[in-house]
Amino acid sequence: MSWKPEVDEIARRRERALEMGGKEAVAKHRNRGRLNVRERVAALVDRDSFRERGQIAGRSSEEDGSDYEPTNVVLGTARIADRPIVVCGDDFTIRGGAYSQAGIKKSLHAEELAIKRRLPLVRLLEGGGASIAGTTGAARGRSGYDWTAPSMLNVLTLETMRAVPVVCAALGPVAGFPAGRLVASHLSIMTRDTSQVLTGGPAVVAHAMKEELTKEQLGSAAIHGRNGMVDNVAESEDDAFRQARQFLSYLPSHAGEAAPCFDVGDRPNRRAEGLLELVPRERRRAYKMRKLIERVVDERSFFEIGRLWGRSQITGLARMDGHSVGILANDCHYDGGSMTADGAAKIRRFVELCDLFHIPIVSFVDEPGFAIGLAAERAGTIRAGMNAMFAVLESSVPWFACVIRRSYGVAQGIHLGPGATVVAWPSAMSGALPVDSGVALAFRKEIETAEDPEATRAKLEEEMAKAQSIMPRSEELGVHDVIDPRDTRPVICDWVHEIQTALAQHVRAGPPRYSIRP
C-alpha cells in the first residue's frame, strides 16, 4: 500500500504554509510598506541558504486537515557571509503575529537550536505575542496560562544571551513578550517609519490609562532610539538587515571562540596626517571625534552602536588590521562629552558585550568628568556611572586607552580598563577637576579680591593648564607613552598583534559568569 496520500497532504500543507496568511492578507501587509516574513528572511541571508524547520507546524480542527492553518513563526538555519546562523521571523499576516502554541514552540526551538549548534540567532519581530484567549486553544473562561512558563521562557532567553550573538529587529508593531525579546539581545534595531515597540497597545492604554494615543505616539523609533530601549534605528528593512549582517561580522559565532579576522586591505602602518590639527588648542572648542575614529580604524570598518542615545559617549565595533575591536570615545558636542547617566548605561552594556565575545577595547578619552547640575542629579548619574565603572573593572579583555584631550575626575576611570595600555597625545590633560572649574573653586577668594579678577583668573588657569599637561605625567611614567597623533593607528595595530596570546587565553577561560544585561 502506497504512502502517496500522506505525502500529498504534506505537500499541500507546505504549499499552504508558503501562502502565509493568504493573498489578501499578504497584499494588505505589503501596502503598509512592509515585507512579508519570507521576503525578509531571503533579504537577510545568503542566497538559497535558508533551510526551514517545522514548516508545516500549525493547527487544524477537521480530521482531514482541510482547515489547516500554518503557524505564524518561520524558523530555520541559513548563512550570512557563508557563516551559519539561526533565523526566526514572525508572520504578521496570520492573526497579527499573535503566537499560537506551535508558534511559541518554534520560537523557543530557535533558542534551543542556537545554543546546541552554537550559532548566532537573528529574530525578525512583528506582532503582539499572546492573546487574551491564551495559546492552548482553551475554551472561553479558561486562558490556559501556565504560571511556570515565564520563568522557563526567560531562562532560555538568558542562556541564549550567554552563549551566542543575538540580533533582534522590530520591523512592524511589536508588543508584549516580543518587545521583551527585542531588547533581550546584543543588538536591537527598529525601522524608522514602519515599526513601533509597545508595552501595551493603544487599546490597552486607552482602557487602563484613559489616554488616547496612536502606536506611533506610544512607541515609535523616534522615542525608543533616543531613550536607549533599542540600540540602532534603521532607515528601511534593507538597512536593518545590513546592520544585522555587519554587526555579526565582528563577532564569533559563539562565546567559546575568538572573533574572525579579515584582510581588509588597509595598511597597519598608515599614518593619518590630518590628526595633527584635529584637536584645537583652545580648550573650550569642540572637534569631531568620529573623524578621529574613522581615520584610525580600518577604512569603512566603524559600526556605531547607540548613536541616538547617551550621546556624550560613542560606542561601536571596528577593525584594526583586520582584527575586531570595541571602540569607546567621548563626543564633546553633547554635554561637553561628560559622563551622563544614559552615557554610563550605554558604556556598561557595551563593555559587557565586548567581554562576553572576547573583543578587546580601544578607548579614545576626552572625559571632563561626570555630568553635573539638577538634571544630572535627578537622573542618578553617580549610581549609573559606578554601575559602568564596575562593569569596566570586572572586564577581563585587553584595554588600550589613548588620551586625546581631557581625563578628569572619577569618570575617567570608566575609560581605563584593568591593566590598560595608556598612551596620550600632546594635547592631553588630566587632574581631579578641569582647569576652569578647578581654578574657580580653589582660588575663588584670590580672584574676587584681585585688582583685575579676569586677568588673575586667566593667569591661574594658564598655570594650572601647564601643571595638568601631559609632560609632567610622562616624566613620572603616569602614561606609557606620548605619541604623535599621526602614529595612532600604527601604535594601536602593534598593540592588537601583541595581545593575541592574551586574547587566546581569554577565550580558553570561557565566557564570564554573567551575560550582557538588556
Q: How would you characterize this protein structure?
A:
There is one protein chain. By secondary structure, this protein is of the alpha/beta class. It has helices at 4-18, 23-31, 37-44, 101-117, 149-163, 177-183, 202-209, 215-219, 221-227, 237-249, 289-296, 341-356, 374-378, 381-394, 435-442, 444-449, 453-468, 470-475, 488-498, 500-508; strands at 51-53, 58-59, 69-70, 73-80, 83-90, 121-127, 166-175, 187-191, 196-198, 232-234, 303-304, 313-320, 323-330, 361-367, 399-408, 421-424, 429-431, 481-482. It folds into 3 domains: 4-249, 2-enoyl-CoA Hydratase, Chain A, domain 1 (Alpha-Beta Complex); 273-428 and 469-508, 2-enoyl-CoA Hydratase, Chain A, domain 1, CATH 3.90.226; 433-468, no CATH class. The strands form 3 sheets. Strands 1, 4, 5, 6, 7, 8, 9 and 10 form an 8-stranded mixed beta sheet that branches. α12 links the parallel β13 and β14. The longest helix has 17 residues, at 101-117. The radius of gyration is 27 Å and the shape is elongated. The N and C termini lie far apart (56 Å).
CATH architecture descriptor text of the largest domain: Alpha-Beta Complex
Residue windows where pLDDT falls under 50 for at least 5 positions: 134-142
Instruction: Quickly count the helices.
Output: 20
Largest sheet entry: 8 strands, mixed
Which outline best applies?
A: elongated
CATH class term of the largest domain: Alpha Beta
Q: How confident overall, as mean pLDDT?
A: 89
Strand content: 15-25%
* CATH topology-level name of the largest domain: 2-enoyl-CoA Hydratase, Chain A, domain 1
The number of distinct β-strands equals 18
Q: Give the termini distance in whole angstroms.
A: 56 Å
Tell me the radius of gyration. 27 Å
